[in-house]
Amino acid sequence: MQATILRSRLSDFATPGIFLLGEKAIAATLELPWKHNERSISCIPDGVYSCRRSGRRVTLGGLVIPDSFEVLSVPNRSGILFHVGNSVKDSRGCILIGSSFRVVNGEQWIAESRRGFDYWLKQFEGIDSFTIRILSTS
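Now predict its structure.
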């Protein structure tokens, strides 16, 4: 199973993308803008990464993530998870998952994040790890 995120770095405020399994789009993604891979304020660099099921309940701020995957071996970074969230304000360098995009006050947001995340996670039932290719256009 080939996982890919195709994303756009055209904005100074957010990095939207599409999560593909094979050739099928299964989720919308949203990350922080590119800030040279600085921890907690930047999206991660393009590349190929291993992802491992977190296997634990994680709390980020007030958000509880009961199950997810962590992106491993990102240079100078750790603790990068896929999780629910609507705005880049919900991310500290993680990848937000949702069903689609929407614009709120001129900013890119994720819509139906909980539903989209649950669907995304269901695609990985019985899988403890996968490899993802992250590729930006522009």
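Residues 3-137 form a domain with the L,D-transpeptidase catalytic domain-like fold (CATH 2.40.440).
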